[in-house]
Specification:
2 copies of one chain form a homodimer. The longest helix of chain A is centred in the middle third of the chain and has 27 residues. The first copy, chain A, is built from 9 helices and no strands. Chain A is elongated and about 65 Å long. Chain A is mainly α. At the A-B interface, helix 1, helix 6, helix 7, helix 8 and helix 9 of A face helix 1, helix 6, helix 7, helix 8 and helix 9 of B. The structure holds a DNA duplex (30 and 30 nucleotides).
DNA sequence: GCTGTACTTGAGTGGTTGTTCAATATAAGG
DNA sequence: CCTTATATTGAACAACCACTCAAGTACAGC
């Protein structure tokens, strides 16, 4: 055969993701990427095609990992609404962990990118739509087991939850302390739990 | 005296604001600004100092106009909570008007800018903090006239409202239709109105 | 109509951008 | 040990970036 690759593709992608998440698409230069990936331009282009392609792959990885964490949280709680509330409370700790950015990378991309980066913008939009679907699905499930009033609309609740998450994470990007973010997440979680039909799943 | 200025400063600033709001700081080049302002680089630099300076002035103008519209809405309604709810409902029409972007320019800047554009980032943060103060102030007023339960915390409510607005406007930047945004804004407005103490201001 | 002054111009600055590709390095197979 | 196949390199490229400044232009007062 031939020469062995010295760089692990997934590892390189993870490093690129961290950079893009932190600085955004435009502010991340190829020189930045060369340093972070410890690769020369030729290798980067041979592996990922273009800066835009690398960015789009980063978006996909980000969404995949984010969704996995979401599912992990859900499965640790006994009911859909409890899981969703726990997810919100978990986001309250955004300022405690060390992350490239407190804001969602998909939202950052949605707001930063325009017509000239249409493909990447569409990718971010599609991934957000997938997340919305997952939210809606959980409200649907809550309704099916009688945890949620049947007169409420899971679609509207799902979108509201997505807007809440977007708002919480954008707010967490401000110059505020951890306790403030925790309090905000707690308030959102309480609003969500207030939807629960009393006495059906748990008692009050 | 000397030669008269052919460009109105406020008008130029407004054009720059529209561009920056639409494309963000990094994606807006000086060539774009030259075309939009119909000014040559020398004039732009003589008038505004630098791209960064022009951007910061745009941020200030954006916040000033946004705050004025907010106050206008508030003053058209009989009580603080009614005014805030109307403000949210007004944002539901984000996709009906033709705007440079549906998302808030301050939030876009907060998410796009980093350490290298520290001054502009701080400006966005300060302006957002001012908006938060104004929200808190309205909840305070609602409490003083007995429209809001005295056990609730105006500071937390103000931050929650800011996160709601951030989320609503970020969501409106997605590829969704106008009715969806209206519905989301309506749900947020209803949540806010649910805080009203029954029978104190209006009847149910 | 001349002069002084301030505004405007646009070619030019040095640096950076994303991208390419011929040359080189490194492995396995024969 | 030589060939073959692939991975990697890094100099070079055209285009673009934010920005400067000497020259040109238009106006008010004289």
């Amino acid at each position: 055969m031939a020469r062995a690759m010295i760089h692990n593709r997934q590892d390189s992608l993870e490093r690129a993701l961290q950079l893009f998440w932190k600085k955004g698409f435009h502010a991340t230069s190829l020189k930045d990427l060369e340093k972070a990936l410890d690769m020369r331009p030729g290798s980067i282009y041979a592996t990922f095609g273009s800066k835009d392609g690398l960015f789009q792959e980063s978006l996909e990885r980000y969404a995949r990992l984010g969704l996995a964490e979401f599912e992990r949280t859900l499965s640790a709680y006994p009911s859909p609404l409890a899981g969703l509330a726990a997810y919100l409370r978990g986001l309250g700790g955004l300022r405690d962990r060390e992350l490239p950015s407190r804001a969602c990378m998909l939202v950052k991309s949605l707001l930063e990118l325009g017509q000239r980066e249409q493909a990447a913008w569409r990718k971010a939009e599609d991934l957000l739509a997938g997340m919305e679907d997952r939210f809606i699905d959980r409200f649907d499930a809550a309704q099916k087991i009688g945890e949620l009033d049947s007169r409420l609309d899971p679609v509207r609740l799902g979108r509201r939850l997505q807007a809440d998450v977007m708002g919480l994470r954008a707010f967490a990007q401000r110059d505020v302390d951890s306790a403030t973010v925790h309090a905000l997440a707690e308030d959102m979680a309480l609003s969500l739990e207030a939807l629960r039909k009393d006495g059906v799943i748990g008692k009050r």
